Amino acid sequence: MPVLNDVLKSSARTVAEDVIPLVEETATISKRQVVPGRVRVRTITDTVEELAHADVQREDVEVTRVPIDRMVETAPEIRTEGDVTIVPVLEEVLVVEKRLVLKEELHIRRRVAAETVEVPVTLRKQRAIVEREAPDGTSIAEGGSKPETDRYVPD
Questions:
Q1: Within its chain, how far is the Cα of 71 from the centroid?
Q2: DSSP helix/strand/coil, 47
Q3: How many C-beta neighbours within 10 Å does residue 105 have?
Q4: pLDDT tens digits, one per residue of 17-43
Q5: Angle at Cα 72 formed by Cα 77 and Cα 78, nearest 5°?
Q6: What span, in angstroms and rounded, lies between the C-alpha atoms of 100 and 48?
Q7: What's 4's DSSP letter?
Q8: pLDDT above 70 (res 12)
Q9: Which of 103, 111, 109 is nearest to 66 (CA)?
């Protein structure tokens, strides 16, 4: 190997040239699809009998006849006093002259009653059975747990 001082002192013809090859590595990335296994999900529907609870209202009407038998000049209007609706019932009576006689009033009172009823209903619930299939074809059942806990998490 020539030393730098020797190279500087020698003529241009005697200078030795050494070639150093430069090497560079490159990376190539490729992808391929690999199936590590398969998953089969089945759902099963079960039926359950339960009682449905609801509050319902019922309205009863009570009619009371109140005799009046009084002469009136004009027909009274239907009126409401508190929770009672009053309907006048009139009759024409033949006398020497015609007069209105208030025969009776119907007093109608409404009552609201609430009660709880129970009605049997059929409800359906589903649960999932997850089966994994390994690449060699063997099946691994993951069980039929509650729908809230069935999850598939890939490997």
A1: 66
A2: strand
A3: 19
A4: 777 778 777 878 888 887 778 888 888
A5: 10
A6: 67
A7: H
A8: no
A9: 103
d(CA 91, CA 101): 6
Alpha helices for the chain (secondary structure H): 4-9
129 in Cβ contact with 143 (< 8 Å)? yes
Sign of the CA dihedral running 3, 9, 15, 20: positive
Mean pLDDT of 65-81: 92
Place of tokens 């109140």: 66
Instruction: For residue 130, give both structure tokens.
Output: 């997850």
- Cα 33 from chain centre: 39
The tokens of 23 are what?
């090497």
Amino acid letter at 61?
A: V
The answer to whether the CB of 38 falls within 8 A of the CB of 75 is: no
